[in-house]
Design a protein that fits this description.
This protein has helices spanning about 10-25, 25-40, 60-65, 70-80, 85-105, 110-115; strands at about 5, 60. The protein is mainly alpha-helical. It has a two-stranded antiparallel ribbon.
């Protein structure tokens, strides 16, 4: 369902890298946390409203980005957006990561992050 190669916006990527510097959590793990945090918060992607370019330089395969959450993430996207075009699912995923990382990006340590999750 999601393409094999995936990337985020440059801004989101920078926030993930900054979080790694503070906590040691790799960008792919942080992206998974951010995605599910965003879904839980009630954020919903709209093709009309969310027109960010996915221009980040960190292009990884979907197994690396999603790991053991691959099937759950894809099913969640299909459940939330049953009528969205296939090409827009990657944008929906990226929008959720961007939304979720906003709540995580300012944590200065791993214990601080763990308390907020």
């Amino acid at each position: 369902m999601l393409p094999n190669r995936m990337q985020l916006s440059r801004q989101t990527e920078e926030q993930l890298k900054r979080l790694k510097g503070y906590t040691g959590i790799t960008p792919n793990i942080a992206a998974r946390l951010a995605f599910f945090r965003s879904v839980e918060s009630g954020f919903r992607f709209s093709t009309d409203r969310d027109k960010k370019k996915l221009d980040g330089s960190l292009v990884l395969d979907k197994m690396t980005w999603l790991g053991e959450t691959l099937q759950t993430t894809e099913l969640m996207l299909k459940m939330l957006y049953p009528h969205i075009e296939q090409k827009d699912l990657i944008k929906a995923w990226a929008a959720h990561v961007e939304d979720g990382i906003a709540a995580l990006r300012n944590h200065r340590g791993l214990s601080d992050l763990a308390k907020s999750i």
